[in-house]
Amino acid sequence: MTSTHNPHDEAILRDLAAVERDETLLARDTARLQHDLKSAAGVDVTVNTKHVHLTAEHDTGLKIKQAEIDQGVPHIALDFQLFEEVVDGDDIPVADDKPIRVRAGARFSAIAPDDNS
Questions:
Q1: CATH architecture of the domain formed by 42-111
Q2: Which helix (H) or strand (E) holds 23?
Q3: Dist CA 72 CA 94 (whole Å)
Q4: Pairwise CA distance, residues 55 & 32, whole Å
Protein backbone atom coordinates (compact mmCIF):
# COMPACT_ATOMS: atom_id res chain seq x y z
CA MET A 1 0.00 0.00 0.00
CA THR A 2 1.47 3.32 -1.03
CA SER A 3 1.09 6.50 0.87
CA THR A 4 -0.19 9.33 -1.23
CA HIS A 5 -0.23 13.01 -0.50
CA ASN A 6 -3.85 14.14 -0.44
CA PRO A 7 -4.39 17.90 -0.02
CA HIS A 8 -8.02 17.29 0.88
CA ASP A 9 -7.01 15.10 3.87
CA GLU A 10 -4.52 17.74 5.04
CA ALA A 11 -7.24 20.39 4.93
CA ILE A 12 -9.52 18.18 7.00
CA LEU A 13 -6.75 17.63 9.57
CA ARG A 14 -6.09 21.40 9.75
CA ASP A 15 -9.81 22.04 10.24
CA LEU A 16 -9.99 19.39 12.93
CA ALA A 17 -7.04 20.95 14.77
CA ALA A 18 -8.72 24.37 14.55
CA VAL A 19 -11.96 22.94 15.97
CA GLU A 20 -10.07 21.35 18.85
CA ARG A 21 -8.33 24.70 19.61
CA ASP A 22 -11.71 26.46 19.49
CA GLU A 23 -13.24 23.89 21.86
CA THR A 24 -10.36 24.37 24.30
CA LEU A 25 -10.77 28.16 24.19
CA LEU A 26 -14.53 27.84 24.58
CA ALA A 27 -14.15 25.57 27.63
CA ARG A 28 -11.70 28.04 29.21
CA ASP A 29 -13.93 31.03 28.49
CA THR A 30 -17.01 29.19 29.80
CA ALA A 31 -15.23 28.37 33.07
CA ARG A 32 -14.12 32.01 33.42
CA LEU A 33 -17.65 33.27 32.72
CA GLN A 34 -19.16 30.86 35.28
CA HIS A 35 -16.65 32.11 37.87
CA ASP A 36 -17.44 35.75 37.03
CA LEU A 37 -21.19 35.14 37.25
CA LYS A 38 -20.82 33.41 40.60
CA SER A 39 -18.70 36.32 41.88
CA ALA A 40 -21.17 38.90 40.60
CA ALA A 41 -24.07 37.13 42.24
CA GLY A 42 -22.49 37.35 45.68
CA VAL A 43 -24.24 36.40 48.90
CA ASP A 44 -26.78 37.93 51.25
CA VAL A 45 -25.90 38.07 54.94
CA THR A 46 -27.25 39.76 58.05
CA VAL A 47 -25.29 42.32 60.05
CA ASN A 48 -26.74 43.70 63.27
CA THR A 49 -30.18 42.50 62.08
CA LYS A 50 -29.86 44.34 58.71
CA HIS A 51 -29.58 42.57 55.36
CA VAL A 52 -26.35 43.21 53.44
CA HIS A 53 -25.38 41.97 49.99
CA LEU A 54 -21.73 40.98 49.63
CA THR A 55 -19.87 40.11 46.46
CA ALA A 56 -17.25 37.39 46.48
CA GLU A 57 -14.53 40.02 46.83
CA HIS A 58 -15.83 41.00 50.29
CA ASP A 59 -13.73 38.46 52.09
CA THR A 60 -12.07 40.37 54.92
CA GLY A 61 -13.57 41.97 57.99
CA LEU A 62 -12.67 45.42 56.71
CA LYS A 63 -14.33 44.86 53.32
CA ILE A 64 -17.44 43.44 54.96
CA LYS A 65 -17.71 46.45 57.28
CA GLN A 66 -17.20 48.80 54.33
CA ALA A 67 -20.01 47.05 52.42
CA GLU A 68 -22.24 47.43 55.48
CA ILE A 69 -21.55 51.16 55.66
CA ASP A 70 -22.03 51.57 51.89
CA GLN A 71 -25.42 49.83 52.15
CA GLY A 72 -26.63 51.97 55.01
CA VAL A 73 -26.30 49.70 58.03
CA PRO A 74 -26.74 52.21 60.88
CA HIS A 75 -24.45 52.68 63.84
CA ILE A 76 -21.34 51.04 62.41
CA ALA A 77 -17.83 52.30 61.73
CA LEU A 78 -14.69 50.76 60.33
CA ASP A 79 -13.11 50.54 63.80
CA PHE A 80 -15.89 48.25 65.07
CA GLN A 81 -15.02 44.62 65.82
CA LEU A 82 -16.79 42.20 63.49
CA PHE A 83 -17.95 38.78 64.69
CA GLU A 84 -19.52 35.92 62.77
CA GLU A 85 -22.39 34.63 64.87
CA VAL A 86 -22.36 30.90 65.64
CA VAL A 87 -25.57 29.11 66.62
CA ASP A 88 -24.15 26.67 69.17
CA GLY A 89 -20.87 28.19 70.22
CA ASP A 90 -18.82 31.31 70.68
CA ASP A 91 -19.01 33.99 68.00
CA ILE A 92 -15.92 34.08 65.81
CA PRO A 93 -13.95 37.35 65.52
CA VAL A 94 -13.35 38.40 61.91
CA ALA A 95 -10.07 40.27 61.53
CA ASP A 96 -9.89 43.29 59.25
CA ASP A 97 -7.09 41.79 57.18
CA LYS A 98 -7.84 38.07 57.32
CA PRO A 99 -9.72 36.58 54.35
CA ILE A 100 -12.80 34.56 55.22
CA ARG A 101 -15.26 32.62 53.12
CA VAL A 102 -18.64 34.29 53.35
CA ARG A 103 -21.64 31.99 52.93
CA ALA A 104 -25.20 32.95 52.16
CA GLY A 105 -27.28 33.48 55.27
CA ALA A 106 -24.31 34.11 57.56
CA ARG A 107 -25.00 36.41 60.49
CA PHE A 108 -22.54 38.99 61.76
CA SER A 109 -22.38 41.43 64.65
CA ALA A 110 -20.40 44.65 64.49
CA ILE A 111 -19.57 45.99 67.95
CA ALA A 112 -18.12 49.37 68.89
CA PRO A 113 -14.63 49.17 70.39
CA ASP A 114 -15.85 50.76 73.65
CA ASP A 115 -18.81 48.37 74.06
CA ASN A 116 -18.07 46.07 77.01
CA SER A 117 -21.26 44.01 76.82
A1: Roll (3.10)
A2: helix 7-41
A3: 20
A4: 16
